[in-house]
Known about the structure:
The protein has 233 residues and is mainly alpha-helical. It has helices spanning 7-19, 25-35, 50-64, 68-81, 88-96, 101-114, 119-131, 135-148, 153-165, 169-182, 187-199, 203-225.
Amino acid sequence: MTRAEQFEQALETIGEFAAEGNDNPRVIEAMGLATLRMPLLPTETPPERREMVLMAGRASYLMATRNTAAADKAFQALVSRYPETPNVHYASGVFLLQEQADKAIEEFKRELEIQPEHGSSLMQIAFEYVNRGDAATALPWAKRAVAASPNSFAAHKALGQALLETGDAEGAITELLTGIKLAPDSPGLHFALARAYQRAGRSDDAAREREEFMRLDRLARTRKSGPQSVGGR
């Protein structure tokens, strides 16, 4: 997944080792590569960058094990030592997002100073403002995210949500449909599209998308936790 630049999925998968308390150096190194969005295998890590990769991996490992105080110190150390390295500020921002969202936005903006078209930072900022109910502020960030990452379903989802909440239901539908073409199995996209259809007065389309959302959500939860998580077989 890391080699294929599916960094979020890679971190989620490697995080299963963290859940088991497995902090083997190779696990930490793999987690560091995904954290820094370096499309490499651990055996391919350049020797001169290995210490940085291990620092990033340790910080993400602590985050995955919910050792928040230690993770905070680890990410601060990473940022302090490698302030100009791509994706360091982004990784720190992702960590801060849950409990220190304003600082997270500052970190994403720092990342954009290093990489002005960093699509993931643009998306994170857009989603944060959407979640705050400030779609007007989210909208330009979401537009930049789509421009930077036109093949990212998440970018189209961010723009679709921002458009919907600023009154452009038809524009939202267009963006969300584009997102679904890129990721047809995303429950969140179908849920957002159902809301957009409802807002546009297309009740039948909204009902169809709600049904698809429920089907995909049930499948996702079953894969993750087994049939018992959704009421048995």
